[in-house]
Design brief:
Helix content: under 10%
Distance between the termini: 105 Å
Radius of gyration: 50 Å
Number of helices: 2
Strand content: 35-45%
Oligomer: single chain
Number of strands: 75
């Protein structure tokens, strides 16, 4: 094998080995980076014995001399003293004295540990364990390290914990960085197990800073750091960036007129600081316009126009330019260079081009030169325009390397013109064009713009008095010619004031005030309006229209309607108009609601043709309100209502809150000691039957009584499991419902007594201190349209309905049996063939006489429920 090949192989091996591990002293033989593969105790271990020997096992044999008190440490805030031994691939730390109980320790193996070939541990290996049941949170790593020097001044200071922490506890109070006892400003963030402090400004060079993590930092379980963690670090010396070269160099001569100027820096620069304010080129006091860019170490200035020949230019890189660490140049960097002397100038382009056709009649003619010209030599004598033998008047200007001829008047359409730049035009060195430069062009045929439509259209009638007039053209127009002088509106000879605007191909005239109803107006677009080529309308465009007669708007409907009753308490009141209204006139002043003389607060909105009043809080029950739309409400033409529109409505009578039956709601019958069906084919539909604490043997008469879509449950049932507990809970819920109904006081209970037969009752609470009858006729319960209406009857003693000609319950106005509650202090009796509605909550017993039908529930706390003969209970 030849020497070159051996060297090549050796180089490849060296790259592979040396590239694989950091912190090496020499080129290794094996090239294997050592790592810690296990520890005793393991990371995060708790309840570690205080006599524990601490060990670290590596993936390969290590150099024993590198494992010592400096590279293998155990700390509990301060360093733990102990003896270190090494055997095989394991290093062992034997503390000089037992570990402290209930203490969290941090173990660390540093990158100073190396294997036998010199490969170092790539990063410090850190782990924690506790001699108690709780692993306390600790700071196990900081960046910069404690006592680290030469820290970058743009350093983000970080602290890593041994476990995830509560991010809310990591803030400006618990994570501080200070210098000389004064905390510096910064932004704090937390992710993973690492908190970061980003200083608001760069750190000072050669300065010592102190980082502090206080014991206010906690983990998610609320456990704090045992004590404040404090460390220090020192920033390094800062070197300012420099400009090390320029192109052209300082004092360079004969620089090309199209030169791109560059400046090279000593180090990478923050690109945001390289711009047209920090990199400038001047010719004397004149600032040169160009584009600044930056790549690598080089800033580039590309002029928009070639440089002047034989001219001195000055380049400046200002000290606002900064490196990536935010360090500025110490001072402005300034250099100069001189362009090469001029040669014979030439015209290199024109606009229009030679022999161009269809040139716009408002064209400005330009000629661009090969180099910068003497502006004084570009004038009406050296830059001319003719049509045949006729000289065209115009103004000559010069900028950059381009001369412009702006004709005083538009050119003629379909006409050939000759432009000339004579040899009187000279460059900055006084050198003339070698020959006159002559070219011709022809204008296009001109088509005058026209008005193709208007709104209102010509002779329109019934036009809204708030109308904005528009005129649409056949082509795009010159916006500067569409003004209050060229677009006018008159009533006879009286000019109407307004604002004229232009967009797309449409001009708009917005009158300052509404037009007058029933009036004829004249609109005019004059020939002063021109298209983009400068061509005016051939004639004034005139049209007329008439506004409509003023018709007052009306309120066509309201919700609630006038004199409505039973209106819900959360009602949003609306009024619909005969026409679209001006939304700005529909507000809390023009749409009001009052209770007597007291105004109701609310929010007024308007959409379509409907105004809405949404009260801020619910209306008061059983109260008459007055709503008013005043004449301040106007339509979009500004016409108000002829008169105030006033209507009234009355809210519904609110009943008491509903009684929550809870778990007993599933039962049509529940009793304490017995349930019986004495005779006949009684039926319970869609409800269960229950007894507790009574047992199943106390339920009799089933059959012939039947239960459709339900079942019987007794306290001694063993199947299915949990029946007894379910019944106990249902009875408890019944007691709670009974007590709630008995104690209900809102709204205030109405006192009743004796016989309620033949009466009608609104929702509410009705209380008697003795017994209650329904005998001399039916009792009607009227919900007045409120589907949620509730009745609670508080009966101190017995409750009886008497069958026959009367004694039934009649529901009206949307009343529901489920919302009717009869709280009975002793026993209830439902009379023969009575039609009954509601839930009976009886303390002692309930009896249903022959043929009685109930839509509701027969619920008894202590005694029995008895069905006498062929009774029906339906789910309410």
């Amino acid at each position: 094998m030849n020497t070159k090949k051996i060297l090549s192989i050796y180089a490849m091996i060296w790259l592979i080995i040396f590239g694989s591990c950091k912190k090496d002293d020499f080129v290794e033989i094996e090239g294997v980076c050592p790592v810690v593969i296990s520890t005793i105790p393991a990371n995060g271990a708790t309840n570690v014995p205080i006599s524990q020997l601490i060990s670290v096992t590596f993936n390969e044999e290590m150099n024993p001399s590198t494992i010592n008190q400096a590279t293998f440490t155990i700390k509990d805030g301060s360093s733990v003293q102990g003896a270190i031994t090494y055997q095989g691939t394991t290093a062992t730390f034997a503390p000089n004295s037992p570990l402290t109980p209930n203490t969290t320790y941090t173990g660390k193996v540093s990158t100073g540990v190396k294997d036998k070939t010199g490969n170092a541990l790539q990063t410090d290996y850190i782990w924690t364990f506790s001699t108690g049941a709780l692993l306390s949170p600790l700071v196990i790593l900081t960046d910069p390290d404690n006592l680290e020097s030469n820290v970058n001044i743009n350093k983000v200071v970080m602290a890593t914990f041994n476990m995830p922490m509560d991010a809310l506890t990591i803030n400006s109070t618990t994570f501080k960085v200070g210098q000389g006892g004064i905390n510096i400003a910064g932004t704090i963030s937390y992710t993973g197990a690492t908190a970061s402090f980003t200083p608001t400004e760069l750190l000072k060079p050669n300065t010592t800073y102190t980082g502090t993590i206080t014991s206010g930092v906690k983990n998610p379980a609320g456990t704090s750091l045992v004590s404040d963690y404090v460390w220090t670090f020192t920033t390094g010396t800062v070197m300012a960036p420099m400009v090390i070269s320029t192109d052209p160099s300082n004092n360079a001569v004969d620089v090309g007129l199209n030169k791109i100027v560059t400046a090279t820096f000593s180090e990478p620069i923050n690109p945001s600081t390289i711009n047209s304010s920090s990199f400038i080129i001047r010719q004397g006091t004149t600032l040169i316009i160009g584009v600044v860019s930056y790549a690598g170490l080089i800033a580039t200035f590309t002029p928009d126009q070639p440089f002047f020949p034989g001219s001195v230019y000055t380049g400046t890189i200002s000290k606002t330019v900064k490196n990536m660490d935010g360090i500025s140049l110490t001072e402005d960097y300034i250099w100069s260079f001189t362009t090469l002397s001029g040669s014979t100038p030439i015209v290199i382009s024109t606009d229009p081009q030679a022999n161009e056709v269809d040139v716009p009649i408002n064209k400005i003619i330009t000629a661009t030169f090969s180099e910068v010209m003497n502006a004084a030599t570009l004038n009406n004598a050296t830059f001319t325009l003719k049509q045949g033998a006729n000289t065209i008047a115009g103004v000559v200007t010069y900028s950059g390397i381009t001369a412009s001829f702006n004709p005083t008047n538009n050119l003629l359409s379909g006409t050939t013109y000759t432009a000339t730049v004579t040899t009187g035009a000279k460059n900055g060195s006084g050198t003339s064009l070698a020959n006159n430069y002559i070219w011709t062009f022809t204008t296009g045929t001109v088509v005058a713009p026209t008005v193709i439509s208007t709104d209102p259209s010509k002779n329109a009638t019934g036009v809204s008095v708030s109308k904005i007039l528009t005129a649409t053209f056949s082509t795009a127009m010159d916006p500067t010619t569409i003004t209050g002088s060229t677009f006018t509106l008159k009533n006879g000879t009286t000019a109407i004031t307004g604002v004229v605007t232009y967009s797309g191909t449409t001009a708009s005239f917005n009158p300052t005030t509404n037009l007058t109803s029933g009036t004829t107006y004249i609109a005019t677009i004059t020939t002063g309006a021109k298209d983009l080529a400068g061509t005016p309308l051939a004639d004034n465009y005139i049209w007329t229209f008439s506004t409509g007669a003023s018709i007052a708007p009306t309120v066509t409907s309201t919700d609630p309607t006038s004199n409505a009753t039973g209106v819900s308490l959360n009602k949003t009141v609306t009024a619909t108009f005969s026409t679209a209204m001006d939304p700005t006139t529909i507000n809390g002043s023009t749409f009001t609601i009052k209770n007597g003389t007291t105004a109701v607060t609310g929010v007024v909105n308007y959409s379509g043709t409907t105004a809405s009043f949404n009260p801020s809080s619910n209306l008061i029950s059983n109260t008459t309100y007055t709503a008013t739309i005043t004449t301040g409400a106007k339509n979009v033409s500004g016409t108000p209502l002829a008169n105030n529109y006033i209507w009234t409505f009355t809210t519904l009578t609110a009943g008491p809150p509903n009684v929550d039956l809870g778990g007993v709601a599933r039962f049509g019958i529940i009793a304490g000691v017995g349930v019986s069906n004495n005779a006949g084919f009684s039926v319970i539909n869609n409800l269960d039957v229950g007894i507790s604490p009574g047992v199943r043997s106390s339920v009799t008469g089933f059959p012939p009584a039947t239960i459709n879509n339900g079942a019987i449950y007794a306290s001694d049932d063993i199947s299915p499991p949990g029946v007894a507990a379910m019944l106990t809970m249902a009875k408890n819920d019944l007691v709670e419902a009974y007590l709630f109904a008995e104690g209900a006081t809102t709204p205030a209970p109405a006192t009743v007594s004796g016989d309620l037969g033949g009466t009608t009752l609104a929702p509410g609470i009705y209380k008697t201190t003795s017994t209650l009858l329904i005998q001399s006729g039916n009792l009607t319960l009227d919900a007045q349209g409120n589907a949620n209406a509730v009745w609670i009857f508080q009966i101190a003693s017995g409750f009886t309905t008497v069958g026959g000609a009367g004694g039934s319950i009649i529901l009206a106005g949307g009343a529901k049996a489920s919302n009717i509650f009869w709280q009975v202090g002793s026993s209830a009796t439902i009379g023969d063939f009575t039609s009954f509605y509601g839930n009976i909550l009886a303390l002692t017993s309930v009896t249903m006489n022959s043929g009685a039908v109930a839509t509701g529930r027969m619920l008894c706390i202590n005694g029995a429920v008895v069905m006498t003969n062929t009774n029906t209970i339906n789910k309410p």
